[in-house]
Amino acid sequence: MEKTPFKAESKRMLEMMIHSIYSNREIFLRELISNASDAIDKMYYKALSDPSLDFDKANYYIKVTADKANRTLTICDTGIGMTKEELENNLGVIAQSGSLAFKNENEVKDGHEIIGQFGVGFYASFMVADVVTVISRAFGSETAYQWESSGVDGYTIVPAEKEDVGTEIVLKIKESTEDDHYDDYLDEYRLRSIIKKYSDFIRYPIKMDVTAQRPKEGSEEEFEEYQEEQTINSMVPIWRKNKNELTDEDYENFYMEKRFGFDKPLKHLHISVDGAVRYNAILYIPEKTPFDYYTKEYEKGLELYSNGVLIMSKCPDLLPDYYSFVKGMVDSEDLSLNISREILQQDKQLQLIAKNIKSKITSQLQRMIQDDRAHYEQFYEAFGTQLKYGVYSDYGSNKDTLQDLLMFYSSKEKKMVTLAEYVARMPEAQKYIYYASGETYERIEKLPQTELVLDKGYEILYFIDDVDEFAIKMLMTYKDKEFRSVSSGDLGIEASENEENAESDANENQALFDEMKQLLADKVKDVRVSKRLKNHPVCLTADGEITIEMEKVLKAMPNNQNVKAEKVLEINTQHEVFQSLKAAFAHDKEKLSLYTNLLYNQALLIEGLPIGDPVDFTNDICKIMV
Ligand SMILES: Nc1ncnc2c1ncn2[C@@H]1O[C@H](COP(=O)(O)OP(=O)(O)OP(=O)(O)O)[C@@H](O)[C@H]1O
């Protein structure tokens, strides 16, 4: 059966095109410059197939000229131009891409990939212009034609005068309103920044007459302004250059130019992949934590280019959250762009690139641990917390990637060590990887709970970040070794004399402990003999999964669920103070209550926990002084 083709209402189509495709008006310039670049590339291809033509790069450029008085912005190129028919077909038919057709007919030569493909970019001009005039003279033609349109009412084509081959597009910029600052597109500074942002790596010079200053003739102090033609774009993207030609300084300059950060990069990674997925990337590990890094305002992402044209300033999908500190850019020819070139359709290539980038960053960090420890420690100081969050979040699904990048302060080495280093040093008899939590290394060092483990000569990792214990709980083991807090009930250390004494002390003094437990009824779950204390009289530990440090962290969270650690007051029965407790239990119950409260408050202070009532506490101290 004969099929009737769909018809499109071109007026409506154009309206939709102008108002619904792009969310960002300034990209009209990117689209026109990309078209100009495509037109020059077509000349290049022509020269390839026609030996009589000589493609001298010096003759090819794009020029952007703003005329504030007449409210016009002109984009002129020395490219292949358009015949009358081409003006008709390419600019008169929405979604007709001469460039796509050209691409299909010509084999792509490296470095000269044609950008256009959808046949809509040109119409972005109507977002900022009331009237668009295109004067074009096609290569090989003596006559030029002028195409003109004010958007919805169609277009006209008339013969025109044009001396050279190429195209000139004149936009009559709309009048500004209170909300819409169209004047921006006539402003030299603004235009330069739009060109730099989106079209910096267009292969041909984008020229502009810019205002410069020079000393006035005959004067050293007075300056005058004058107009000077300058090339605005960098043209050759650094990532397309050979790594051997580039110095550290070149990479640093690119980091600064792109304003990836205000610091210096700590490390850079230049990646060129030419396999199942083709892309170039330059990635940086910054030196310092950005001031807003741990806030909601911080946006992760890499600049994304397709054929040297900026598609997205921050493409978040290229980086996992735990590497959100990485800055830089990715350029790929293989991306399937959506029509606005602003966002990407669910793109397999993008996912492949992201996966590849992730593993490159991981290997780079692992290399730094081995070969450049000082810089790694500096990096870890700035972003280690993020790696630990990475272990903890997403139900621990990234822990295998990240565990070898973690570092903690070691009681033995007095510096940051990796888990691999810790495990390699473990004596055979040591069952667990020990850790102790606290506010600072100095405070942890003095924690009574560490005494027994240290006495055994075992190394302890000091945790001072809120996320540390949560990350370790997610990790559970490293190389089959379980993590164990020095405050936990079972330290896996063989029964010592200490422990046997504790056993008999517990049996003998159960009544005393029961009474103390009653006195602290709402505060602790239990009072018991300590197997870990040597020099201190008391300490607080916790039974169950929630440790005291975790309770502190959870309490500080905005919508805390009032999760509490099951606190245990441990008593050192070898300490002299214990004799005083026993005596008080036997003869003076009031004193026992006083001592119990004092010891409990001491244990709280050692843990860095607030004591219930400081006034009561100081009064209690006074009582024993008089
Ligand atoms: N400056 C120019 N010189 C020569 N031809 C041009 C120029 N600008 C546009 N064209 C022609 O007009 C066609 C339509 O341009 P338009 O910008 O709408 O789409 P495109 O560049 O093909 O695709 P995309 O929407 O992906 O940018 C181009 O394919 C090209 O053939």
TrEMBL record:
The answer to whether the entry has keyword ATP-binding is yes
Keyword annotations: ATP-binding, Chaperone, Cytoplasm, Nucleotide-binding, Stress response
Q: Which parts of this chain are annotated as the region A?
A: 1-341
Pfam families listed in its UniProt record: HATPase_c_3, HSP90
Query: Where primarily located?
Result: cytoplasm
Q: Does the keyword ATP-binding apply?
A: yes
Organism superkingdom: Bacteria
Q: Where in the cell is it found?
A: Cytoplasm
SUPFAM superfamilies in alphabetical order: ATPase domain of HSP90 chaperone/DNA topoisomerase II/histidine kinase (SSF55874), HSP90 C-terminal domain (SSF110942), Ribosomal protein S5 domain 2-like (SSF54211)
Q: Which InterPro entries match?
A: HATPase_C_sf, Heat_shock_protein_90_CS, HSP90_C, Hsp90_fam, Hsp90_N, Ribosomal_Su5_D2-typ_SF
Renumbered to this chain, region (C) spans: 553-626
Listed under subunit, the entry gives:
Homodimer.
Q: Which family does it belong to?
A: Belongs to the heat shock protein 90 family.
The UniProt function text for this chain reads:
Molecular chaperone. Has ATPase activity.
Q: What is this protein called?
A: Chaperone protein HtpG
Species per Swiss-Prot/TrEMBL record: Alicyclobacillus fodiniaquatilis
Lineage per the UniProt record: Bacteria, Bacillati, Bacillota, Bacilli, Bacillales
Gene assigned in the entry: htpG
